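sorry for the late reply, my laptop died twice this morning and i had to redo everyting from scratch. anyway the thing you sent over, i finally got around to it. pasting the sequence first so we're on the same page, its 377 residues, then the predicted structure underneath. double check i copied it right bc i was rushing
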Amino acid sequence: MTDASSAPRWPGSVALVLGSSTGGVGQHIRSVARGLTAVGVSVLVCGPAATQDQFDFTGVGARFAPVEIPASPTPADTRAVAALRRALATAGIDVVHAHGLRAGLVAVLARPAVPLVVTWHNAVLAGGLRGRLSRFAEGIVARSARVALGASSDLVERAVALGASDARLAPVAAPTLPAPRRRRAAVRAEFGIATDRPLILSVGRLHPQKRYDILVDAAARWRTRAPAPLVLIAGSGPAYLQLAARISTARAPVTLLGHRTDVADLLAGADLAVVTSDWEARQLFAQEAMRAGVPLVATAVGGLPDLVGDAALLVSAGDVDAVDTAVRDLLDDESRRADLARRGAARAATWPTEADTVAALAALYAELVPEPSTGNR
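ok and here's the structure:
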């Protein structure tokens, strides 16, 4: 592990490019921007205006240029390419670092005259025409980037298979949560939970990839337990209405909390954390739960097995029976929950930190541009 002061002092300028984001990618870029500016890098963030509103990149020392990159390809992409070209031309950038496939494609089409780095944060899961277009874009981005970074080893392998000339693993560290502001009893009192009633927490964007339908269906089965667990899902996203309807139909003991800024508090009140996604790289909530010493049940997908090792209970994706059984087993075994809590916190202590991430990126930029011509701005 390292700290920000030991990162290479690279006095150049980097443009961090992102598409629409309400969660992990935006949080990661804010973390990176804060760390890079602290070690002398001039940072320009280019992305939708809504991301600046939510993540306040300028508040951590970066400059911001609005480049509207929507979640899905549209004719407006031509305007995004033009906007990115203008931002890069006026800012004197040494390295362009795009985050995600959509931002990567726009950055490739903008044809920057400086090295392009693209971090792959997600796998392509969509089918049909959208999936085919996304996989076509993957190939373009993989072959065009000077360096492809994968947030998990399967993403690195994917980039290599598509023709990336230089693909490397770049684990994304979850930003450190603040200390809880409330005690366990106060958090549980917010939701009217008795001391003996289990509280199960999941946090993430309400998106089909997260498969919260599996968690809702499992929770409906727990309604007959005494006492029945309460499941809290914190996050916002396009699947809200479908999930709300499913919860109502199944009469599942699940509450959708919407966007929350007190995840540390929610973890302080939780007995279990659950991740039911079809795919994840190094999911931020999984990291937060294990750091907080909350036993974790997660799907064995993407980078999660490498992340958690034997310090979480892994289940098959898309399997409501597996989630049901895993949660029941842990709720019925206090000593096993305590063991997972201890092992989870110990495992988390071995992960790269935000400072490690910043140091690795500063070293990469210095490798690509040893003597930046722009200097600090």
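The chain has a mean pLDDT of 93.
thats about all i looked at so far, will dig more tmrw
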